[in-house]
Amino acid sequence: MELKEKLLSSFMAFEEKIDVHSELHDLRTAAIKNFENKGFPTKKAESWKYTSLNAILKNDFSVFPKHENSIEFKDVKKYFIHEIDTYKVVFIDGVFSSNLSSTTHEGLDVCLMSSALNKPKYKMVIDTYFNKIASKDESLTSLNTAFANEGAYINIPKSTVVRKPIEIMYFSTGTDAALLVQPRNLVIVGENSHVQIIERHQSLNHNPVLTNSVTEIFAQKRAIVDYYKIQNDNHEANLIDNTYVSQKQESHVYVHTFSFGGNLTRNNLNFYHFGERLTSTLNGITIIGDKQHVDHYTLVHHATPNCESFQDYKGIFSDNSTGVFNGKVYVEREAQKTNAFQKSNNILLGDKSTINAKPQLEIFADDVKCSHGCTVGQLDETAMFYMQQRGIPKKEAKALLMYAFSNAVIESIKIPELKQRITKIIAMKLGVKIGFDL
């Protein structure tokens, strides 16, 4: 049975085993019908022109895990930012792990999506925010909505500075020969509040896994959201990440995406503006090799005046790897005084590596400052020669140049322990040891 048919046949059984109110039932039904009509995206769609899911969908994925698994903290400690205290929401094969988690309801909610969806006390919040900014048309988002039940629910009240970062961790154990998981996250950050969130998906063995994740982020007036996505999974893991961000007046939202591992990674990142004088920042570093594939698809929708957006994506590609950057800045007629900047810089380290870049501007306002740029090249041989002449070995010189290339994005990391961790991961990817932190 093909995966699409398996999902459609599993939907009724899924709804029967969860307790949901009628509004959610109607929403799920509409979502599964949209997925049934559209199916999985193909390269015929312009937005998926350079990314094919055909090879992945040939796996016989289990829609629901067949066994419950437990993991000890010592076995996965290295994947957490364990140097500092954090709130933790941890899932194993899509199932919440209370042993590994550290949730809270003291002054803020850091807990489970299933609780928020099914308990009456959260109904008003769910009715206000759930599935309100996520696409009703995109087929994989619809598929996630149809099966949405588990994930992280984060609700920060107004005028709250969260005292420690929040880690959202999804582990796949590989007990199933191939597993499909569909986490759903909802993040609401109240007026004048500030939060830092780290999200990671990690497979613990080499069985294929496909993660179809959806995250909705709502930043209220003057809220500050720092969101970090760490993508350094095994080469048999595939991730489709759909993130939707709603921003109100004078809010600041930063989404940092670090793509180092996995077989195929597709990041759909969508920002929507609903107030003036706000700032959206999208930063990314991609370092891949072998036959890895990373696709960044971004949209910043400027609908209000006096707003800013900044996109800075760096890519380093070796062997037979493929990178894609498809970024769009859309400026409506009412969005005067918009300042939008978009940049994609890429280095190809081999003759067989590929980057497909398509920066786009659609501007309907006449009083704006908007720019985009893309570069594709190789390392500067003159700089390499200069460094070698001063006693730096070729391998280390090459690594230093690539560090310098990525440095602007690394410097934007506001959690020192995470900054050190990213620096070490980059050093490992480049196969060198650097005696300082950037």
Strand content is: 35-45%
- The amount of helix comes to 10-25%
Low-confidence stretches: none
In whole angstroms, the N-to-C terminal distance is 50 Å
Main β-sheet description = 10 strands, mixed
By secondary-structure content and strand pairing, the structural class works out as alpha/beta
Strands of the biggest beta sheet: in what spatial order? 2-1-5-8-10-12-14-16-18-20
Instruction: Please trace the helix and strand order, writing H or E for each element.
Output: HHHHEEEHHHEEEEEEEEEEEEEEEEEHHH
Tell me what the structure shows:
The protein has 438 residues and is an alpha/beta fold. Helices cover 24% and strands 37% of the residues. The chain has 10 helices and 20 strands. The chain has helices spanning 3-17, 22-38, 54-57, 73-76, 113-118, 123-129, 139-147, 381-389, 394-410, 416-430; strands at 87-92, 95-96, 109-112, 152-156, 166-172, 179-181, 184-189, 194-203, 209-219, 224-231, 237-247, 252-259, 264-273, 279-288, 293-302, 308-317, 322-331, 339-348, 354-363, 369-377. The strands form 2 sheets. A 10-stranded mixed β-sheet has the order 2-1-5-8-10-12-14-16-18-20, with helices on one face. The radius of gyration is 21 Å and the shape is globular.
Key descriptive features of the protein:
ten-stranded mixed β-sheet; single chain; globular; 20 strands; alpha/beta; 438 residues
In short, what is this structure?
The protein is of the alpha/beta class and 438 residues long.
Summarize the topology.
Blueprint: H1 3-17, H2 22-38, H3 54-57, H4 73-76, E1 87-92, E2 95-96, E3 109-112, H5 113-118, H6 123-129, H7 139-147, E4 152-156, E5 166-172, E6 179-181, E7 184-189, E8 194-203, E9 209-219, E10 224-231, E11 237-247, E12 252-259, E13 264-273, E14 279-288, E15 293-302, E16 308-317, E17 322-331, E18 339-348, E19 354-363, E20 369-377, H8 381-389, H9 394-410, H10 416-430
Parallel strand pairs: 1-5, 4-7, 5-8, 6-9, 7-9, 8-10, 9-11, 10-12, 11-13, 12-14, 13-15, 14-16, 15-17, 16-18, 17-19, 18-20
Antiparallel strand pairs: 1-2, 3-4
